[in-house]
Design brief:
By secondary structure, the chain is α/β, with parallel strands linked by helices. The chain contains 12 helices and 9 strands. It has 2 domains: 202 residues, Rossmann fold (3-Layer(aba) Sandwich); 66 residues, rRNA adenine dimethylase, C-terminal domain (Helicase, Ruva Protein, domain 3, Orthogonal Bundle), CATH 1.10.8.100. 40% of the residues lie in helices and 18% in strands. The strands form 2 sheets. Strands 4-3-2-5-6-9-7 form a 7-stranded mixed beta sheet, sandwiched between helices. A two-stranded antiparallel sheet has the order 1-8. Strand 2, helix 3 and strand 3 form a beta-alpha-beta unit. It is elongated and about 70 Å long.
């Protein structure tokens, strides 16, 4: 069996297939065995685990997943990579490859048909240009998954794991932490990929919460408050909320809400905890 993490093997596959990396698809294939080992360990995959992999490419990570998991469904958007992927992993009978866009395919249907509705884990080396849409699509649609173990741009990982009152803390932090508990697994240098990206990466696990960390009267209202608070970061909370068309209150009414929550009107959204946002939204959207 070829070791697909070997740069030599990857170069041989490229020469044999004539494959060209697509900049528009953000293709950077992982070729670092130590990082692959950390992803498998960090994701908690074993012989009883069902896995959906997003963006398998040539199958470097897929190969490790098939060796360790019960069953793997790999979703690859690039039709020119699929036959190469099939050839590279032809010895595995616990793998199914689907040529589709993860943002457009029906993940719940795939889980029902391929895994009998059993919970799964999602593992991916995500293209940088579409990282956030994919993460939020999976979280917001509440796909039946236990966790997402994903390779993403280091800067995005820092934003997801940020604490209140830091420059990286924002709407993405609040949203991801509402649905999951982030856990940094490792940082990854550009040299771990072919071709090498211009930025560093991180592997992060998003362990899906069984229950939200806060009690809400109106979930949509909660995210309206979050979006409004971070929409104009330099403005005070009072001004940011009262100037937002999504918040159906006058400035005086917003002030009463903030006072009722014990929150200083001059604070900014980046200083608020998830509980603070919940308290505000519960008073506005009851």
């Amino acid at each position: 069996m070829k070791n697909l993490a070997s740069p030599k093997v990857i170069k041989e596959i490229l020469e044999e297939s004539g494959f060209k990396f697509s900049k528009s698809l953000g293709q950077n294939f992982l070729i670092d065995e130590s990082v692959l080992d950390k992803m498998i360990a960090g994701s908690g995959i074993d012989e009883n685990t069902n896995v959906i992999e997003i963006g398998p490419g040539f199958g470097t990570l897929t190969q490790r997943l098939c060796m360790n998991a019960k069953k793997v469904v790999a979703i690859e958007i690039d039709s020119t990579a699929v036959p190469i992927l099939e050839k590279n992993l032809e010895e595995f009978n616990n793998l199914k490859i689907i040529n589709d866009d993860v943002l457009k395919c029906d993940l719940e249907k795939i889980i029902a048909e391929e895994f009998g509705g059993e919970n799964i884990k999602i593992v991916a080396n995500l293209p940088y240009y579409i990282t956030t849409p994919i993460i939020m699509h999976i979280l917001e649609s509440r796909v039946k998954t236990d966790s997402l173990c994903i390779m993403i741009q280091k800067e995005v990982a820092q934003r997801i794991a940020a604490k209140p009152s830091t420059k990286d803390y924002g709407a993405l932090t609040v949203a991801v932490n509402y649905y999951s508990t982030p856990r940094l697994i490792c940082n990854v240098p550009p040299s771990s990929f072919i071709p090498m990206p211009k930025v560093s990466s991180s592997v992060i696990s998003l362990d899906i919460r069984k229950e939200p960390p806060v009690t809400l009267k109106n979930e949509k209202g909660y995210f309206k408050v979050v979006k409004a608070a971070f929409g104009q970061r330099r403005k005070t909370l009072l001004n940011a909320l009262s100037n937002s068309s999504a918040i159906p209150l006058s400035k005086d009414e917003v002030l009463k809400v903030l006072t009722g929550c014990g929150i200083d009107e001059k604070r900014r959204g980046e200083t608020l905890s998830l509980e603070d946002f919940a308290n505000i939204s519960n008073m506005i959207f009851s």
